[in-house]
Amino acid sequence: MKKALSVIMVVVVMFLASFTVVRSASAEEVKITGVITKIEMAADKKSAIAVLKDNKSGESVTITITDDLTLDKFKDHRIVDGDEIRTKFEKEGDKNISKMFKKTAGC
Amino acid sequence: MSGKIITIMLGCALLTTTVQAKEHPGKEQILKDGYQGPKTCEVCHPGKAKEFLGTVHWKHASKADHVDNLNHKEEHGMKNRIYTMCNGNDIVNNLKEIPPNAAGKTKFSGCNTCHPGDHTIDVGSTGPEAEQSIDCLICHSTKYDFRKRKIVKDDKGNVVMTQDRSTEAAANIGRPSIKNCMVCHEAAGGGALVKRGFSMTKEADVHVSKGIICVDCHQAKNHKIPTGRDPNNWASDGIYMTCVGECHSEKPHKDAGINKHTAKIACQTCHIPRTGGAFSKDFTKWEKMSNGFYEPSTLKREVNETAPVYAWYNLTVSNTPHFIGPKGSRTDGKSKIYPFKLFQGKAYYNKKDGQLLSMDFAPPMATGDTLAGVASAAKILGIKDYEPVPGWQTIYFGSNHQVAPKGKALGCANCHSVNGVLNLKELGYSAKEVEKLTTPEIYFEKLLKLQQENE
Predict the structure, then answer these.
(1) Interface check B358 vs A, CB under 8 A
(2) Which of B118, B139, B293, B346 is the S-S candidate for B282 at Cβ 3.0 to 4.6 Å?
(3) What does the pLDDT look like over A52-98, one tens digit per residue?
């Protein structure tokens, strides 16, 4: 227990050093805004794909979503076809993995 | 001590799971008779609908005696306040269809979409019809289908917010989950996590990772939901809460050195080291979005990317046209140091009386013409004598969620080193005191001992 506590305290001190924000330096990160034209849940419900029509290019982009919060919003239809989405994704192999998937909204 | 706390926390968590697993005793009846709105619930829960009409969630307002420069006889809240996080309110931004944009497209927009009524029965309305229009299921159903909550025009041209009143949704009743509350709270301020950068996920808050949900901490009684003293959350149901209560005492640490701090330093200061979301908006110039509509220009960061500012707070609020934030000082005997998210917003002020003007978002959303928005709001409010001039407002938002794992709480050196997170001079400490508070003398022995134990 004592040992565990000391680890914690050292981590506390270390935290000062690590206080600056580490931005993901990945060059592969892409941001787009577009309207959903299709949502498809995987059979195991642990992922889904959404097709967005990119507002800028007009092209369709297929994005893979794996985070529970967004998947849940697909399940209860808080996010549906026709909604406009702001998304950030990373290219991993032939997939675009979503890092952020939010409905746009005015104030 | 910590063992006891852990037990209590596990207690909370267990409570949550067992309650959620329990089936609602009204299920059979509802499946048999179907759901006709609140009156179905009131067969077994009489008085609940009427009771709800008296709450902030229905009225979007309450008295706010702790805030300066208000008429304390009147009620204030999202219904009628103006600030530069959202430069309007339910009145000037009543849900409506906005004029077509350059591409001829239109949409519905309004603040009172985050209200459990149907809009024809609006914020603060009363009477039997209002009672029956309440959307009980938005907070209580685990099977709410959001496709059924839509904004439409009825045949009389009224803008109506529909509800999911299906038997399926009504048959699946329980205590509100995080998701139920987040229907409205997640997107407050103009989009997901904008206002508070307030994410209640396992990754973002230690409590959630232990299964604790909103209503475990915000323990509602008769639909009165307790709140805290965020300087920008004026409306309350008259019940207040802090971190200290059923789950935590004023002195929760084994280390007496930490416990000594709780008289002057709020729990949040050490335990919520980061904040996030929008930190600045300009309502005088809107950005054109790729869909052809305009939005208030907004600078924002992710949930955990912003360092808070720290200030003394005695739980009363300074409210002037250019500043809304904590009052307090080191010497008033009531204040503690709290963390805040600093936000600065630009909007139009009335040159004639110096007051902040509000904006109807419908015109600028369509065309970007912000002065047309000010004119429309002035017309709605009957303000004739005004001259709009741009100005900035500084707002302090409370930072009361996203409790970090204990290993990431601020430690001695975060504050007592020379470049610590607190601006001790600004917080009212004399040069001599600052010198004393920032010598390693304060923490050296302690940290060295811990370091040795760890090697």
Answers:
(1) no
(2) B346
(3) 999 889 999 999 999 998 999 999 999 999 888 999 999 999 999 99
pTM to 2 decimal places: 0.93
ipTM: 0.76
Question: Which of B142, B146, B151, B253 to mutate against chain A (most A CBs within 10 Å)?
Answer: B146
Contact criterion met (CB below 8 Å) for B1 and B252: yes
> What are the residue boundaries of the structural domains of chain B, listed by start?
10-410, 412-455
Residue in chain B lying closest to A6 (CA): B450
Which residues in chain A are closer than 8 Å to B304, comparing Cβ atoms?
Answer: 21
pLDDT tens digits, residue range B387-399? 999 999 999 999 9
Location of structure tokens 């971190």: B243
Token match 């329980």: residue?
A: B174
Residue type, B319: N
What is the nearest CA distance from A86 to chain B, expressed in angstroms? 10
Q: Are B232 and B324 in contact (CB under 8 A)?
A: yes
- Kind plus residue range of the DSSP H or E element containing B108: strand B108-109
Measured between CA atoms, how close is A100 to chain B, in angstroms? 10
Nearest to B190 among A56, A76, A106 (CB): A106
The phi and psi torsions of B295 (rounded to 5 degrees) equal -135, 155
Kindly list the residues from chain B whose CB atom is less than 8 angstroms away from the CB atom of residue A5.
254, 450
Q: What are the boundaries of each domain within chain A?
A: 29-103
